[in-house]
Hints:
Largest sheet: 7 strands, mixed
CATH class: Alpha Beta
Structural class: alpha/beta
CATH architecture: 3-Layer(aba) Sandwich
Strand order of the largest sheet: 3-2-1-4-5-10-9
Strand content: 25-35%
Radius of gyration: 17 Å
Amino acid sequence: MERGVYKYPDIDDRNFYGNIKNTDWEDGGLEDKYIYEAIQYIPKEQRKTILDAGCGLGKQIPKLISYFEKIIAIDPDKERLKKAEEIFNRAKNIEFSCASIQEFVRKEILDCILCSQIIQHVHTKDVQVILDKFKSLLKKSGYLIILTTNCLDEKDVFLKVNCETNEHIPLTEEAYNGCVEINDIHLPTRLFTEITLKRLLNDAGFEILFLRKFNGYPKIKGDNFIFARSK
């Protein structure tokens, strides 16, 4: 792997759709329901520009395209971003950019940011950096939608997922951060407790409007859906 070039280890989400997303995962479409509920909460005059931070293959874009005048979709993986561009090449209100959240620069202040399944895969020191970055990019009282992991234990759990075999390997926090830096076939994954997420968002200057569970919760550990507003 060329230094500085990021490639998401689960190519085309094959491991996710082949092994992780199963019948226990299904919960009647709560993810879509919560996204639409959050969008409806946002005043129409504040639906001009939204950042899809870590858009990947563009899974969330169809849910946004009819509600926002402009979508800025960024991702550090060139191949995944290219595939998203090909899918939405006729949409005139989407701007694609190959960049990590940490590197992203924008003069235009944003109305809203959506970040789906990203912060659980970055270095632990980068989570607060990313949330602080979101705060700086948003207008006053701008909105943030975050989809991320959920932990049923008392403390955050760290592991790596082999994207070829789907083996889940427990890690220490130090080993997890080392896995982030290696960028190989393993997907480093942090499971967040509600306490951790609330602290991080509060420290970044966000007020949580609602925090809910989806993706099979409580049958499986599920995920956190967070809708917040900058203070």
